[in-house]
């Protein structure tokens, strides 16, 4: 018998952010204390195969998957089909983007009745969909940038009409983004109509819905980390100092040239307002576990815009989410421990809910 908590770390996935997931998972795995945890590694290939075994992360990084065995989770929370994962206490998904951060795998965890780190189905889905998320923020008085949603079919059938419509959002520059993706994958800054056409086609490769937003010129990019379930709290604010025109995938993960200022140099009132918006947005979509909330602050007017909320943010040791908590007094390893504790607390709370009704009539 062992008193160690049995943790399954899941990474990879069918997403444009597959490689980012491996980077984040490598960092998390490096701080899971073997005296406290018995760790199982589960990798999901780009094609969707679930695999486990020895040094899964290393084999995925080298793209050499020989010797790994299939792994599956059944939606049946009882019976023999559950035996394959019955020995696990909590699942730690480090799956950025599609099929990992959008509520789909969270739905599987819920049906299987297992504990898991992070947000539930609703928060994951709403946080992932930039269009719906912005509408929820607007409905609750949290400022967001002007935007419009278009579909892939509209782009393919009538590009001139789409361009005419989205140009009504604002003057250039405009940003085009897949509605359901992160890590700046498929994002284009458009300075003119030609850029816009290319940006729409680029974003449509990654999602059937594309968001077009006003580009906030001369804006500071401010980020806040939120942690908790029923009583979330916000970290100090941090500022991204992009080395390129915007905080692109390359500057985040490839060349690593963008800088971070932690804490961000902001007036106390501005910092407090941003942190308040972050916690409020977190609560509005019923988030749990963790999220990184991103903002724009106009340099001249100091106006704040909430940009997006990431329910499974980048988790490498140089990523903003853990670095903000480190600056707030919570080291990386302790942060990972706390997320696992929050997952167990959330499961205990779910277990209090009855799924059977018997009439008293």
Question: Can you characterise this structure?
Answer:
It is built from 12 helices and 15 strands. The protein folds into 3 domains: 5-116, 3-Layer(aba) Sandwich (Rossmann fold); 146-214, ATP-grasp fold, A domain (Dna Ligase, domain 1, 2-Layer Sandwich); 217-348, 2-Layer Sandwich (D-amino Acid Aminotransferase, Chain A, domain 1), CATH 3.30.470.20. By secondary structure, it is an alpha+beta fold. The chain has helices at 18-31, 56-62, 104-112, 121-128, 130-139, 152-157, 159-166, 193-204, 249-254, 268-284, 320-327, 332-350, and strands at residues 5-12, 37-44, 50-52, 69-70, 90-94, 115-116, 147-151, 174-178, 188-190, 209-214, 219-228, 233-241, 259-261, 289-298, 304-310. The mean pLDDT is 91. A hairpin with a 4-residue loop joins strand 11 (219-228) and strand 12 (233-241). The chain is globular and about 60 Å long. The termini are far apart. The strands form 3 sheets. It has a 6-stranded mixed sheet with strand order 4-3-2-1-5-6, sandwiched between helices. Strands 13-12-11-14-15 form a 5-stranded antiparallel sheet.
């Amino acid at each position: 018998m062992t008193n160690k908590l049995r943790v399954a770390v899941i990474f990879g996935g069918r997403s444009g952010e597959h490689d980012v997931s491996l980077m984040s998972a490598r960092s998390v795995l490096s701080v899971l204390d073997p005296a406290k945890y018995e760790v199982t590694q589960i990798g999901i290939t780009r094609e969707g195969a679930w695999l486990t075994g020895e040094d899964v992360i290393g084999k995925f990084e080298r793209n050499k998957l020989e010797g790994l065995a299939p792994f599956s989770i059944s939606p049946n929370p009882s019976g023999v089909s559950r035996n394959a994962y019955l020995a696990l206490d909590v699942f730690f998904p480090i799956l950025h983007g599609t099929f990992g951060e959008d509520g789909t795998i969270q739905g599987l965890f819920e049906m299987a009745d297992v504990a898991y780190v992070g947000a539930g189905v609703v928060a994951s889905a709403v946080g992932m969909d930039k269009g719906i998320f912005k509408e929820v923020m607007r409905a609750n008085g949290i400022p967001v940038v002007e935007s419009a949603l278009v579909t892939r079919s509209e782009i393919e059938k009538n590009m001139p009409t789409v361009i005419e419509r989205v140009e009504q959002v604002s003057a250039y520059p405009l940003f085009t983004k897949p509605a359901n993706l992160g890590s700046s994958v498929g994002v284009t800054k458009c300075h003119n109509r030609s850029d816009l056409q290319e940006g729409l086609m680029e974003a449509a490769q990654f999602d059937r819905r594309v968001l077009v937003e006003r580009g906030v010129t001369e804006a500071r990019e401010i980020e806040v980390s939120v942690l908790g379930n029923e009583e979330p709290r916000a970290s100090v604010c941090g500022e991204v100092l992009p080395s390129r025109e915007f905080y692109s995938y390359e500057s985040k993960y490839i060349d690593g040239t963008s800088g971070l200022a932690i804490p961000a140099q902001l007036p106390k009132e501005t910092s407090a307002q941003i942190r308040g918006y972050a916690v409020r947005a977190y609560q509005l979509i019923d988030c749990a576990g963790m999220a990184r909330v991103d903002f724009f602050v106009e340099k001249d007017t100091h106006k704040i815009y909430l940009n997006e909320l990431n329910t499974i943010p980048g988790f490498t040791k140089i990523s903003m989410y853990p670095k903000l908590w480190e600056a707030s007094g919570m080291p990386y390893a302790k942060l990972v421990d706390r997320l696992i504790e929050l997952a167990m607390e959330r499961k205990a709370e779910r277990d209090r809910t009855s799924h059977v009704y018997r009439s008293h009539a």
